[in-house]
Amino acid sequence: MPTAHRRGGKTASTRSNQPVLSFGAKSRITKPSAATPTPSDKTKALEPLAIDISDKPSPTDAVESDIAEPPQPQPHVAELAVRQQAKAEIQQPLSEDEKTATKITKKQLQEYWNKEESKSQGPRFHHDDLALEEKILRHFDLSSQYGPCIGIARLKRWRRADSLKLNPPIEVLSILLKQDATAGQRAYIDELLS
């Protein structure tokens, strides 16, 4: 009986009709792609850049006043939406609560914050370099009993909580009314998550 050749653990007589894979360079099949530029296309694309660079004056010719400032980054879409909400909320007529809030002094704000600090069960981290107003606003942002703070202006959130009889702190309203219409209207946690 002739000896059977073994390939891959099977004898030639039991081998399937499946072709053997070859990993050599000669059998390499590639798919042509229109998006892949050829080397000559790459050099053609770089030629205008080389011309543009050579046309620019050298750095020694430039005066410091001629240097343009870097462009300011565009605000995020969520930031724009919150700014529009804040502008719409500011334009409403003042209610009795808002008239009372405009009369709150810095001393009353400090007393409110001291009372809130005494309720806290542990030390607050990352509050050392914050202003009193920012501490109060961040505390309001993280107080879930007034509803979600993501995607809504702080002033609108305060008014919503007030309309739902959730008794939001008047001190927060005082800070929000005294601030610029667009500054500080977005919750800190909203900025972190965007």
UniProtKB/TrEMBL annotation:
Residues 1-74, 82-101 are annotated as: Disordered. It comes from the Eukaryota. Residues 11-20 have a biased composition (Polar residues). Pfam families: DNA_pol_delta_4. This is DNA polymerase delta, subunit 4-domain-containing protein. It comes from Aspergillus lucknowensis.
